[in-house]
TrEMBL record:
It comes from candidate division TA06 bacterium SM23_40. The keyword Phosphoprotein does not apply. SUPFAM superfamilies: ClpP/crotonase. PANTHER family: PROPIONYL-COA CARBOXYLASE BETA CHAIN (PTHR43842), PROPIONYL-COA CARBOXYLASE BETA CHAIN, MITOCHONDRIAL (PTHR43842:SF2). This is Methylmalonyl-CoA carboxyltransferase. One of its GO terms (cellular component) is acetyl-CoA carboxylase complex. Residues 260-478 form the CoA carboxyltransferase C-terminal domain. Pfam families: Carboxyl_trans. It comes from the Bacteria. InterPro entries: AccD/PCCB, AcCoA_carboxyl_beta, ClpP/crotonase-like_dom_sf, COA_CT_C, COA_CT_N. Transmembrane segments: none annotated. Keywords: Transferase. Residues 3-259 form the CoA carboxyltransferase N-terminal domain.
């Protein structure tokens, strides 16, 4: 073979790799409203940036008729590329090849990108669309999953890990996304469950559809498994890109600041009147947050779950921050089991990745009742307390109306190392001046001053260095 022929052969092989499971299966994928593994990567990554690994890898099964069915890539496209010019590692499961199922070879490909990502300190994004363990492989497939779970766990808090579930994700396979930092799901096409509707029917006699059991809506509103919900694959890619714009590449870097495009000294007069005269009237804390942050831009996490607390990312004078806020217009902003867990998870992510925390507090306390007590509000509320206590990133608190009971302590109070604590002079029963006299509030401020005050505090805290006592790890009340 001449050199020219050899290059021609390589080109043909590369083209074959792109065919995946063939045109029929590809058409079926599109009919379901789903994109192919490669189309998804095209949308996710900067144009032309994708570099592929292991395109020729095939499974090694010599049984069940699979010995004659080897498809290069073996059901997952892996490699790296960039998003807004920043390096990311990716894997994208190809449902057209053996239903995107996980063979040992498939697992090894995923592990390779995860190892590389940890080595160079860059995020991993997994696009999941898979029938789970490849039945013909038996225990080697299970071993492959375990190798992935181990890497998910060891990479946790070192590099950001993002999962998009864009098709089925069932059985133990759900635990890889569950171990990552954020899960995206797509309405109508993605499902996650440990046991499917048939098994549920056999064991518990419940009749439930795929959608009711583990659809995107259920996980975004009821279980809290899903952090972001998208209408289709394209929207999901856009959401992932936006999330990454707020977070650093790894735990040793600061989050990416951008050129500020909003006045840091902007006073917002409407904040002065946002708290209703009547103390029983709610208001939308989202309005207050969007008046304070750069250009009113807030990316909510868990937007549809435990809505009595708001968590999300925003910028202050170009610097990414994590926002935690009570929502008085939902269950009066009370702290209950779900909102405590939602808040705790977010606080820990921000702390792990050097993202300052800004807490807007208007809290009547913890939710009373047997449902909450028997459900474990003590241990779940403790998670939020623990998360705030252990966090060492800059922490700024603004009490907008009230901070009662144990919830006063929990929500980034001065006593648990809140760096700067402000209060508006609009507290319902207890006056903020009593706390201010004790030094528990650094300053009582006019609501309109909130933005410039927070930005000045963040700048003052830029070089904050704080460490917890050395230990293997704490024992958070799980
Ligand atoms: C091997 C599989 C497969 C599997 C699907 N396929 N699941 N091959 N092992 N687990 C193949 C099908 O044979 C088919 O091949 C192709 O993938 C597409 O599947 P269809 O059934 O035609 O597609 P669809 O109707 O959309 O149904 C998708 C599905 C269904 C809902 C995912 O296939 C299904 O229920 N599969 C079994 C899911 C499952 O029980 N997985 C194990 C979960 S437990 P052809 O050649 O026709 O295209 C698990 C344990 C992990 O994963 C443990 C970790 C600790």
């Amino acid at each position: 073979m001449t050199a020219k022929e050899k290059i021609q052969e390589l080109r043909q092989l590369r083209e074959k790799v792109k065919e995946g499971g063939g045109p029929e299966r590809m058409a079926k994928q599109h009919e379901r409203g789903k994109l192919s593994a490669r189309e998804r990567l095209d949308l996710l990554l900067d144009e032309g940036s994708f570099q592929e690994f292991d395109a020729m890898v095939t499974h090694r099964i010599h049984d069940f008729g699979l010995e004659d069915r080897k498809i290069p890539g073996d059901g997952v496209v892996t490699g790296y590329g960039t998003i807004d010019g920043r390096l990311v590692f990716v894997f994208s499961q190809d449902f057209t090849v053996f239903g995107g199922t996980l063979s040992l070879a498939h697992a090894e490909k995923i592990c390779k990108v995860m190892d590389q990502a940890v080595k160079v300190g860059a995020p991993v994004i997994g696009l999941n669309d898979s029938g789970g363990a490849r039945i013909q492989e038996g225990v080697t497939s299970l071993g492959g999953y375990a190798e992935i779970f181990l890497r998910n766990t060891l990479a946790s808090g070192v590099i950001p890990q993002i999962s998009a579930v864009m098709g089925p994700c069932a059985g133990g396979a759900v635990y890889s996304p569950a171990l990552t930092d954020f899960i995206f799901m797509v309405r109508g096409t993605s499902h996650m469950f440990v046991t499917g509707p048939d098994v549920v029917k056999t064991v518990t006699h419940e009749e439930v559809s795929f959608e009711e059991l583990g659809g995107a809506e259920v996980h975004a509103t009821k279980s809290g498994v899903c952090h972001f919900i998208a209408d289709d694959d394209g929207m999901c890619s856009t959401q992932i890109r936006r999330l990454l714009s707020f977070i650093p590449q790894n735990n040793l870097e600061d989050p990416p600041s951008i050129e500020p495009s909003d006045d840091p000294l902007r006073m917002e007069e409407d904040l002065d009147t946002i708290i209703p005269e009547s103390s029983i009237k709610p208001y939308d804390m989202r309005d207050a947050i969007t008046m304070v942050v750069d250009n009113g831009d807030l990316l909510e996490v868990h937007e549809h779950y435990a809505q009595n607390i708001i968590v999300g990312f925003a910028r202050m004078n170009g610097m990414p921050v994590g926002i935690v806020a009570q929502q008085p217009s939902f269950l009066a902003g009370v702290l209950d089991i779900d909102s405590s867990v939602k808040g705790a998870r977010f606080v820990r992510f921000c702390d792990a990745f050097n993202i300052p925390l800004i807490t807007f507090e208007d809290v009547p306390g913890f939710m009373p009742g047997t449902a909450q007590e028997h459900g474990g509000i003590i241990k779940h509320g403790a998670k939020l307390l623990y998360a705030y206590c252990e966090s060492t990133v800059p922490k700024i608190t603004v009490i907008t109306r009230k901070a009662y009971g144990g919830a006063y302590d929990v929500m980034s109070s001065k006593h648990i190392r809140g760096d700067i604590n402000f209060a508006w002079p609009t507290k319902r029963f207890a006056s903020p001046y009593v706390a201010a006299q004790m030094g528990y509030i650094d300053e009582v401020i006019e609501p309109r001053e909130t933005r410039p005050k927070i930005i000045a505090s963040l700048e003052m805290l830029t070089n904050k260095r704080q460490q917890n006592p050395p230990k293997k790890h704490g024992s958070i009340p799980l």
